[in-house]
From TrEMBL:
<protein>
    <submittedName>
        <fullName>Nicotinamide N-methyltransferase NnmT</fullName>
    </submittedName>
</protein>
<dbReference type="GO" id="GO:0032259">
    <property type="term" value="P:methylation"/>
</dbReference>
<dbReference type="GO" id="GO:0008170">
    <property type="term" value="F:N-methyltransferase activity"/>
</dbReference>
<dbReference type="InterPro" id="IPR029063">
    <property type="entry name" value="SAM-dependent_MTases_sf"/>
</dbReference>
<dbReference type="Pfam" id="PF01234">
    <property type="entry name" value="NNMT_PNMT_TEMT"/>
</dbReference>
<dbReference type="InterPro" id="IPR000940">
    <property type="entry name" value="NNMT_TEMT_trans"/>
</dbReference>
<keyword id="KW-0489">Methyltransferase</keyword>
<keyword id="KW-0808">Transferase</keyword>
<keyword id="KW-0949">S-adenosyl-L-methionine</keyword>
<dbReference type="InterPro" id="IPR053384">
    <property type="entry name" value="SAM-dep_methyltransferase"/>
</dbReference>
<dbReference type="GO" id="GO:0005829">
    <property type="term" value="C:cytosol"/>
</dbReference>
């Protein structure tokens, strides 16, 4: 289902708004991925669900999984990542994210060769590109039912609906692509009623850790052993000119029993 607001979603504007610098929110995300991907089976096939035009979430994943399948609802977002894979040597926008991700993984100094090596690795691991629809019970079609060892969904379910009931359905739909004993890595904005790209507002729903635990428990995840982190947003004053619509972020890693 194509939401009205996503008809005009422009990858370049979105990247400029959220990923033009490695700010505190982005550093925290990269630190979370460094923690979350530890212990993932290196033979895993991973799905990035609705990755947008973004690469930041794949940098550490590339060092821990065998293959990455990248998806989004919008073909123009998937196209951005395909272009990066083909012409990455011409793309500079993610370089600071590679550097920061490698530091979050424990490198005290990061050389150009280290970055090139990880870029090459990620490019190799990106082995399939798919279109998805989170509102569909089988968001990637029936053939992808319980197909993946790892599913990552970053800022998706709570960023495409203003309804808590629909959010739950969307998380359930996303989880249908995960194998019975698979691992879900999910990040979400918190305390949100919208998120902004330039002056355009996209729908969002405020979800709490309790909401996340409820839906993960229903999906058969080991909720007693979740990895869960919270950070405040950089701008929490709702009257600030550049308030982005959310109060914080929630990061979760969960494995199905
Ligand atoms: C806030 S962005 C997150 C993108 C990316 N994961 C990131 O962290 O930068 C929300 C994403 O949801 C995607 N989207 C919009 N409608 C969707 C739908 N019906 N099914 C799945 N994804 C959708 C958009 O194309 C966009 O990439």
């Amino acid at each position: 289902m194509l939401l009205e607001s996503y008809k005009t979603f422009e990858p370049a504007n979105y990247l400029q708004e959220y990923y033009s610098t490695v700010d505190l929110e982005n550093r925290s995300l990269l630190a979370f991925f460094a923690e979350a991907y530890k212990g993932i089976d290196p033979n895993s096939v991973m799905l990035e669900f609705s990755g947008g035009p973004s690469l930041y979430s794949l940098i550490t994943a590339a060092a821990h999984v065998k293959e990455i399948h990248f998806s989004d609802f919008l073909e123009r977002n998937v196209e951005e990542i395909k272009l990066w894979k083909r012409f990455r040597h011409r793309s500079y926008i993610w370089i600071n994210f590679f550097k920061e991700a490698l530091m979050a993984e424990g490198l005290s100094e990061v050389s150009t060769d280290d970055i090139l090596e990880r870029e090459e690795l990620l490019s190799k691991k990106l082995s399939d590109f798919l279109l998805c629809d989170a509102f569909n019970r089988h968001p990637l079609g029936q053939r992808c039912y319980q197909r993946y060892d790892v599913v990552a969904a970053n800022f998706v379910a709570e960023s495409i609906t203003p309804s808590l009931k629909t959010w739950e359905e969307v998380v359930n739909n996303i989880c249908s692509t995960l194998k019975p004993s698979g691992t879900l890595i999910m990040t979400a904005i918190q305390g949100a009623s919208f998120y902004c790209v330039e002056n355009h507002r996209y729908p969002a729903i405020a979800v709490t850790p309790e909401d996340v635990i409820r839906v993960l428990s229903y999906q058969g995840f080991d909720v007693d052993n979740l990895l869960m982190r919270h950070i405040p947003a950089e701008i929490t004053d709702i009257s600030a000119k550049d308030y982005k619509g959310y109060q914080g972020m929630l990061f979760v890693k969960a494995t199905r029993l």
